[in-house]
Design brief:
About 35% of the residues lie in helices and about 15% in strands. With about 90 residues, the chain is α+β, with helices and mostly antiparallel strands. It starts with about 20 loop residues before the first helix and ends in a 5-residue tail after the last strand.
């Protein structure tokens, strides 16, 4: 019998980045209610924008539900971890 699929918002154990690593810092910013812009993520990590977007894709592949939302004023996109409770 097949196991039930894992929840989209709850990745499998062992997939969380190490706390204090650059990817861990990205995840911490994305888990905040206000999320983070690409510019903020680039500033914190020192990565180039395309590298930062690739890291977001990597988090999605690990099972995190990373969403991008445009601000109402037409500003930069804000990335955050989507939760079913939100």
């Amino acid at each position: 019998m097949k196991a039930a699929p894992a929840s989209v918002t709850e990745p499998a154990s062992g997939t969380r980045p190490k706390p204090g690593s650059k990817l861990g810092m990205v995840l911490a910013l994305l888990e905040k209610p206000q999320g983070a812009s690409l510019a903020k993520l680039v500033e914190v990590t020192g990565w180039l924008p395309h590298t930062t977007r690739a890291a977001l894709t990597g988090l999605r592949k690990r099972g995190f539900s990373v969403v991008s939302e445009k601000s109402a004023g037409g500003g930069a996109s804000v990335y955050r971890i989507h939760s079913e409770a939100a």
